[in-house]
Description:
Layout: H1 2-22, H2 24-42, H3 47-50, H4 53-69, H5 84-95, E1 102-108, H6 114-126, E2 131-138, H7 141-149, E3 151-153, H8 158-164, H9 170-176, E4 177-180, E5 183-186, H10 188-191, E6 194-198, H11 204-210, E7 213-218, H12 227-236, E8 241-248, H13 254-264, E9 267-268, H14 273-277, H15 281-285, H16 304-308, E10 311-313
Parallel strand pairs: 1-2, 1-7, 2-6, 7-8
Antiparallel strand pairs: 3-5, 4-5, 8-10, 9-10
Amino acid sequence: MQQRARLQLQKMSKSKLSTLSQSKFLRRIVGRPFLRVNEFAWKRLPASVRTLQPVVRYGVFLNSLVKLRSNRNQVHGTFFLRNRPELELIRSLAERKPKGSNLKLTVLACSNGAEVYSHVWFIRSARPDLKLEVFAIDISEVIVKIASEGVCSLGENALVYERILARMSEKEIDAMFDREGDHVRVKSWIAEGIHWFAGDAGDPRLAETVGPADIVIANKFLCHMHPPDAERCLRSLPRWVKPGGHLLVSGVDLEVRAKVAADLGWIPLLDQIGEIHDGDPSVRRDWPWRYWGLEPFDATRPDWQMRYAAAFEIGVLGYRTASSYTIVQSATSIAD
């Protein structure tokens, strides 16, 4: 009885917070000063207090207000080795391929190319025998050109590029780059064979031209769309993936991703699910005060597997029975 009463109280509390977050009066009239006062107080809370469940739930409510008030715009910037657990998962998927086989990788919203080169480095270092074909796509022609050059300046723009390389050790930089005067260049064995395109990830014609891949990475761009647009784009992504292939999609509103994944029956991969969720310190640090901020991992939620998974197996046409996801406990083999 006590357990049932507590669950009902939690449900009522969440319902009230959700109702408040949708309130036009609170959002438009009181929203800005309300959020400023809360941010001031939040940043002065001890870290141990911020992890308490009631505080986390209140943070989810605050973040919902932030999302409702925010103007969302695409950002063309990222880092090398941004999320190491995610890189390790992709490497493990590649390692399941038979010796000497083909592996096709597509990276949507490739930005400055840092994450593309990171993924390719991890895969080719572990499986040089694979015939790796890589397609990197971004909506900005300018950023695609920059990405394709694979150069980081250590001179005039040193501060910018030091930030891009900030998550790498000197040993990793030496392993991944050749030093040429005041800049570094991605080593040729990593950069070769990458096809760079300027285009829209939601364009079915581009998806048909490039063709489906074994692994598709669609990270860090859907969160910059308003939820209805992000949902439409997310629902279109299975066309990029081979049946039985894998889709990685982080940097998206969790409610949008969980809804689409459940509707289309995507199978969440549970290997390192918590580590991948927490693997990018920049988005974890920005929660709850930025719309792209990522809430703490909460395994007590009944929907935690679907809510927090960032990697999915995609069935034929992207549809699987939604109930089957609960029994998947690890990454599965990539279909040839």
